[in-house]
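Researcher: I'm preparing a figure for a lab meeting and need a structural model of a single chain. I don't have an experimental structure, so a prediction will have to do for now. The sequence is pasted below. Please return the structure as tokens so I can convert it later.
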Amino acid sequence: MPRVFEICDFIIRQEAFEKLIERIRMPAEYAREAMDALWQELDEFACTEKREYPQGTRAMVRQLLAALANRASGAWCGIEEDVWIDTLKCFSRYANEHKRMYGFYGFDRADWTERHVNARIFRLGELEYELKQNADGAPVLGIHIPSDAVLEKSALNASVKRAREFFAAHFPKYADAPMTCESWLLSYEVASVLGAKSRVLTFRHAFEPIQSGGDCIDALIKFVFKLPPDTPCKTDYAALPERTRLEKGLKRLLLEGKTVCTGSGVLKREF
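Model: Understood. Here is the structure written out token by token.
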């Protein structure tokens, strides 16, 4: 009898999982892989033959199951449904990025998305916000820029406004916490190759003081040039693509032997 209950419980979770991956807009081809991999998580009752899945698929399935559990009675309980769904859409975004970089769907961000699953990062409009603390233990909100974010002033300002309201309602200690950002978008070197009307500069100008960090070549390869981390272009800069003004400018800097560093700052004004 206990096994019957276990199977019934898993069927219920399967239905919830299927609805979730549909709502977060998982690509249909990869959604089928995920549903098949889901059954493998119940080893003793799995009816399908054991098989290998694309990179990270089973890890993604386990994380989405954890997100469902956290929604029911964990960290996500009581938080608006649309925020939960919008935040978990990162899984579909990363699956699509994996397809663009490698030619097939997969998932390689499990270390990062653990924060989304456990309600440490929230997608509120165009931006994501992470619950953090500074060196003194004081609350800080870390801003992250999803690859599908629209860097328009009105949309960015609306996101910040919504974030202030959201954290005041759900995490009062973070209601007035400083908002910080560390990203290649704040880089001095990146700024030097952009036009005056660039949306990246619009984003950057809202932060101060901007301090330079470490080499951000890995982020540039992934987010600007949209190439896999192990691409030969990582050391052979002459082979980097030149499809946009940003790509051309960064490629020139790299070929000149210059280091492109991250930038960090505190949000001080509207975008």
